[in-house]
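agent> Task received from the user: take the single chain below, predict its 3D structure, and emit structure tokens. No templates, no multimer pairing.
agent> Plan: (1) validate residues, (2) run structure prediction, (3) serialize to tokens, (4) report one or two observations.
agent> Step 1 OK, no nonstandard residues flagged.
tool_call: predict_structure(input=
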Amino acid sequence: MSDIKDFIDMAARYPLLTQEQEIELGRRIQLWLKHPDPPRGVIRSGQRAREQFVCCNLRLVVAVAKKYQRRIAGTCLTFADLLQEGTIGLQRAAEKYDPECGYKMSTYAYWWIRQAITRTIDMKSGVIHISSGAKRKLQKFRDAAEAGGTLDEILERAGLMKRDLKIIEQASMCYRVACLDALDLSVI
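)
tool_result: status=success, residues=188
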């Protein structure tokens, strides 16, 4: 828990970047990565720019990871795992970001962070592999079911059809397999 608090405290220490700073850092990174044989100064400048980009956007990683906390309940994954994977996604975004497209870095990075986190959840959250589509349908169904109502009302709120129920049921059964780390084996 202390590691998570340290991560969040560290993320808060870095200031948010202005649009001009994002463009400048993005150009330095692209110059470094796209140059066929970059001089030493360009390499160092690009690496420092990437590091600054990542550090100044760590709050975005925390914000995105918080949205997925509920999905890791009952799995072997921790919030720290989400932060780690989100940071890897942020690093990838910093390297792929093209400042000439006119998008803000945070808009672009959000997708990469989210992708890294959801991919990790999909790959490591269950013993049995379930397709991403089935997981999405199950999550939509669960979210809509929280408000209560009849099955038809829940399906309508979730934007699902009756034929999706079999997929949802199968995916739900796979999630009932517990992570051994989460079980209390002392009673055995």
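agent> Step 4: summary for the user.
The longest helix spans residues 105-124.
agent> Done.
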